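User: Let's play a game. I give you a shape written as tokens, and you guess the letters that built it. Ready? Here's round one.
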């Protein structure tokens, strides 16, 4: 299983560098083989979910986010401490504009990893994108205490404080940090 997982990860890395679809198809094949051998392999389930999320990004077919969601949820059920599966599920929700759902996913995993910088940053982003600026600032202020030089943090805090003070409820679209 380890060799198949490594092959799947390598293929996905090549896909990320080249955007050649053949690498995504191969990654799906390797993760699928692992899942066939061990249906509760959380890492393979997460990998298959990421592949389906990328298929959705490329093809805009609604079957892909549904498949990705099933894989991420199965990965979380198999390993409730697998941070990447929670992040990927939240990123999927975010990509679909489901900011409330994404926030709930981040809040759940933050109970396990309360000082995780990526989780705090991304939870702030989805809250800001949902118009909950005070909540976003709460997550980012906590992150600022942990790592004041976190990428884009100062910029996002400044923008969000301005929106909060002005009472502007315009649609904000900040970008989360990604993980696979």
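Assistant: Ready! My guess for every position:
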């Amino acid at each position: 299983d380890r060799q198949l997982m490594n092959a799947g990860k390598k293929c996905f890395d090549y896909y990320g560098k080249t955007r050649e679809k053949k690498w995504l198809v191969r990654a799906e094949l390797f993760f699928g083989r692992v899942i066939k051998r061990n249906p509760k392999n959380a890492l393979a389930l997460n990998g298959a979910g990421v592949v389906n999320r990328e298929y959705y990004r490329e093809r805009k077919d609604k079957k892909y986010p549904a498949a990705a969601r099933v894989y991420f949820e199965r990965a979380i059920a198999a390993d409730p401490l697998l941070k990447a599966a929670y992040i990927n599920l939240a990123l999927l929700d975010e990509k679909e504009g489901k900011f409330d759902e994404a926030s709930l996913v981040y809040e759940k995993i933050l109970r396990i990893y309360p000082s995780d910088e990526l989780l705090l940053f991304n939870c702030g982003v989805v809250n800001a994108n949902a118009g909950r600026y005070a909540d976003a600032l709460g997550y980012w202020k906590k992150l600022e205490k942990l790592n004041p030089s976190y990428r884009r943090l100062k910029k996002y805090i400044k923008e969000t404080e301005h929106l909060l003070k002005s009472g502007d409820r315009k649609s904000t679209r900040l970008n989360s940090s990604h993980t696979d």
